[in-house]
Amino acid sequence: MCARHDFNNALEVTQNWISDLMWRLRWHDRERVYQALIATLHALRDCLDRDHAVYMGARLPALLRGFYYEGWNPGRRANTRNRNSFLERIHIGVQRDPAVDPEWLPA
């Protein structure tokens, strides 16, 4: 019963993050918001050195923490060190959706 409660709580917190972003971005497509959130988290993670990336990940809600670390190689050096490459990483993460302007996503 405790594990189910923890999972439901993690799901609720993640849904709240997405709902908050929907409101802030004034978007109505939950899937697009989810993709933008994950793309932004991955871009942020990839521009940080390993210790800072771990520090950031440890502060995320449980379910988002899993998405944040998905596909991460901690042995790789940070590769997104400038604004343009950071924004391009987000744009790739949202499959170059023309309706998503990475500059307008909350950081």
Walk me through the structure.
There is one protein chain. By secondary structure, the protein is mainly alpha-helical. 65% of the residues lie in helices and 0% in strands. It is built from five helices and no strands. It has helices spanning 2-25, 30-47, 50-58, 62-69, 83-93. The longest helix is centred in the N-terminal third of the chain and has 24 residues, at 2-25. The chain is flat, with a radius of gyration of 14 Å. The protein starts with a helix and ends in a 14-residue tail after the last helix. The mean pLDDT is 84.
Quick synopsis:
The protein has 107 residues and is an all-alpha fold.
> What is the first-to-last residue Cα distance?
36 Å
Instruction: Categorize the overall geometry.
Output: flat
Unreliable spans are none
In terms of quaternary structure, the protein is: single chain
Structural class: mainly alpha
Residue-averaged pLDDT = 84
Task: Please bin the fraction of helical residues.
Answer: 55-70%
Largest sheet: none
Work out the helix count: 5
Provide the β-strand percentage band: under 5%
Order of SSEs, N→C?
HHHHH
Strand tally: 0
Radius of gyration, whole Å: 14 Å
